[in-house]
User: Fold these one by one.
Assistant:
Number 1:
Amino acid sequence: MNKIKIALGIAWAFVCLLIIIILFPGLTGLSRAMAALPFMKINPRYTGGEEAFIKPADACTLVVRKPVFDGLWKERKTGFVQIDWRGDIPENISDTIDYDQDGAPDFTVRINTKTDNSELIPVSTSVKDIDVSTPTSYGWALRVNLKKHY
Amino acid sequence: MDNTLTAKPAGKSLGKALLYTLPMFLITFVFITGGRLSFTDPAEVLAIFLVFLGMNVLYFLMHYTGETDKFRAVLFIIFAVSLSFTLIKNIVDMRSSMSFSQADIVECRIPFCHLVIPMMIIPAAFTKSIIFPGTILGNFANISSMIVLWLAATIVLGRGFCSWGCFYGGWDDGFSRLRKKPVIRKISDTWKWMPFAVLFMVALTAALTLVPTYCDWICPFKAVTEFEQVTNVESAVKAGVFISLFGGLVVVLPAMTRKRTQCSFLCPLGAINTVSNKVTPFIIKIDKTACSECLKCVAACPLFALTPEGVKAGTVSVFCSKCGKCVDVCENKAIHFGIKGIPPGTMKNFTRNLFLFVSFLFIAVFSAGSIVFTVKSILDFVI
């Protein structure tokens, strides 16, 4: 029994040695395999959610994303919708957004991209306030807080 | 293999030490250089050569002197400092600041570190997604690579990751060595259970809020990496918390107690690594027949893994990070690196050599990139 335990212990130690030896040369492949696992994607709370629709706006493109209400196991009562302006953004942005595409505008936003001043005019009762309004590498991103009505 | 019950201490044989170093020399040469050296940038070649040589000298000295901890600590501390330097330099080059902005979060440009792992497990299971604004693949410090590296290291080394792989641990390890004698001697070792409470709290709050709460509110190492831009009261409070925790748990308390207090009392990943200590084959063993119960090992242990009762019973707790400090202070060589299944006091040299090879190879290759980058930056500055 003692000899079996010793043999198993040494065998496991040598397996560990092999793991470390193949770890670094195989890191790229192992990382790709890890990235392919179903849970290996960034939560929409961070990515801003999937693109819902795109609207051309002068020199830039307006991307409206799907509202994000993600919770641990069910949707939350509060969330946000992210709007991206991509391309050459003007000094003054003024757009009216119908994020749920029900035909009625949900809010109007005015942004001065030079002074970082952002103003939100809610139309829908689901729209609360501005969470984030920031310049990005692709233009400008805006996150507007939302609440659900049941 | 050395099968004697009273094995003579490792080391002091130049030939043997050189022989043990040769495989490490060859493997680290291949891994650090990628098997090729481009001479287009002399500073880079010199940096690679210096790092490669320095690491192998440390490994040789471990075998030649028979001591482990002080040579491990040199590399471990250099790793911590150089990783912070590399990260800060990259971030400052990218953003002109150590702080990250809302845009960095929106564009998922935050470097991922292993301390996020305890918070992402429950949300990953329920939402099938990662609650961190980083990148899955590609770029610097991507999520996939960090998980693979940590997973392999924690299976192989258990909590040994905290002394042979964690690029933050070197900070409090370094500060814990500033004084020769501790100012505060009596600390209840009950505190060592605190990381489990922190783990429970951050895992729960992260699951409920889908925010990596430890990174957001607690992590002391934001002081030496990156932090949220202070723009309002909330971000100012967060900055106050991480600066206080870094100052208290990473600098002041380690210096006063000679213990790694951040690792012992706060780190939630350390708690997970403690559990994985049950998986690793490598453990510290006490040969009760050789032990004089002087308890020097208990005093030396920086992570409260050894207790007087444990030493008398010949057991080392799962909190052990296999730093080797206790092994080095034991005059009777009763405490030693071992492998599960092998009785204490037997095959000491073989088990030590195998453990050192595995753990040193991990830290050497893992740390090489950032240390080479730091050395090259210093050379560029000097030359």
Note: Chain A has two domains: 2-35, 44-147.
Number 2:
Amino acid sequence: MKSFKQLKGLVFPLDRANVDTDAIIPKQFLKSIKRSGFGPYLFDEWRYLDHGEPDMDCTKRPLNPDFLLNQTRYRTAQILLARDNFGCGSSREHAPWAIEGFGFQVIIAPSFADIFFGNCYKNGLLPIVAPADLVERLFRESLASEAYLLEVDLERQKVTLPSGDAFGFDITPHRKHCLLNGLDEIGLTLQQADKIRAFEARHKSAQPWLFA
Amino acid sequence: MAGKTLYDKLWDSHIVSEESDGTCLIYIDRHLMHEVTSPQAFEGMRLASRLPWRKDSIVAVADHNTPTDHWEKGIEEPIARLQVETLDTNIKEFGALVYFPFKHENQGIIHVIGPENGTTLPGMTVVCGDSHTSTHGAFGTLAHGIGTSEVEHVLATQTLVAKKSKCMLVRVEGNLGQGVTAKDIALAVIGRIGTAGGTGFAIEFGGTAIRSLSMEGRMTVCNLAIEAGARAGLIAPDEKTVAYLKGRTFSPKGQDWDRAVAYWATLPSDVDASFDAMVELKAEDIAPQVTWGTSPEQVLAVGGRVPNPAAEADPIRRLGIERALHYMGLTADMPITEIKVDKVFIGSCTNSRIEDLRAAAGIAKGRQKAASVNQVLVVPGSGQVKRQAEAEGLDKIFTAAGFEWREPGCSMCLAMNADRLIPGERCASTSNRNFEGRQGPGGRTHLVSPEMAAAAAIAGHFVDVRNLY
Ligand code: SF4
């Protein structure tokens, strides 16, 4: 997995609540058996005026001028600012794959849907839960600015605004450790293989029908 | 010491290890798989030269991309076919307890075939790369959706890295009126707590109205727990659970059965257990529900009127209502019963079980689809459901009413196959998500119960199904 340590990145504000994973990456792109290549189809139905299908060359498709992400100034955005319940709906990991594929590394929102939140960490994306009034301020300031940059420091669990104001965020030590070091969680878990085997033996004698 | 909830018992009995920050390694008993969220996980296994920890925990099926008619033609779209064939190859290479490939007589939606084969049992942990895995919680099972990286993690280690959720009790007391269903309970709950109301929680459903539901109805309720933001829905196992499971292909047999039944009886929440949150609804207050917007929480009783954004004080919510009304092509304050439908979809892991089809057929019997309705699809949840329905003559009732009787699969729930809405089309659907474009780009979805869907097909617009009995 990719590691994440710190970033000074451009903010793209997505001013909608309850953005679901169907909107992040529509289902026709889920037919792919690959793990990459979803970036061009991020927010497909909002971003383009035509109907997207897998393997389309997106550089030739008509862009929706009303969708903010299409403005030249957001081409290099790395921080996605969102509203409540971001990533709700389907568990598709294609959603973080598409967000990461576009170039985002951090998502800031007042709240996230559970499954999506967990999926982010597996893909080197850092989701940050921020208080509602602060998110409000970030929306206001970023929408009013040509290039609004935030500094995110995972080690110190801190986000610094252009004004110098800063806020902290929570992350479990386990997730922080994995993200900072880009660790493969499977390898880490397999270090506990003996414990898993011991548990399995106890479980089997208690509920043998589960192993029939 | 306070007693334990069902959720506590399920969680505690599966902890392999626990870190100081509360992160746990949880043992997984059952791993359900389908073609959409598994290929990258198998590919990861292959690249790392890993083998499944326990291949006999795997139950797999092709369901999302498969067509629901003309099976003899196979899957015509090449990339969809490749995805289904990739699952065939992966299961052949890595193994499974049981696999239902495309065209197998027992093929169907993963959340329908798991329970009907007895591969979902009380006391288990069940995962699948699919958010509606919450369905299986109806059996007193800790069941939730996971992402593809976690699918790979479970394949390789039989465990999941997770933190315990909080637990919410949703209690529904009293008697449901005729024509009011498990679907209406679930939609009413979502309407009450919102699509993020259950975030961070596992929801246990209890109360007399829940106890009186059949296993099919309980699955519908738990299926929709994810639409309330909860990863898991739970209902305590009881005599109905036991009766449903007895004799199923993979249910325990002989002595194991007796031991299992005795164990399952210990699972319900203790009387002195405490919950982190509690919501109560009266069954008598619940009317048939219809969603009007593009989020399941945008839901109303059938007698209601579409909301007026001008009446909403909160600016973000007002914008949400305006956007939804625009997308859905509705005017503020219009009565729900004046909304006309173009298509009707009866199916999905929410409402495609035998009881759902019986309920829809009960309304369709001796009646005719409205001429203004372009298509009514009835898609059974599995091969077993299909055969049972045909044995009861339900297919004849549907076709006589002008409905189409299809082969099992996910179908127009998410429109990955050819069954879909065209832009602007409006659908009464028994599925679970009314998101923009969910049933086809530009399509407009209203979530309802099977009874309400059949009634809309007959009338051409939404009607209160209670007037049709
Ligand atoms: S029926 Fe719909 S919700 Fe259920 S598994 Fe299939 S696509 Fe997902």
Note: Chain B has a mean pLDDT of 97.
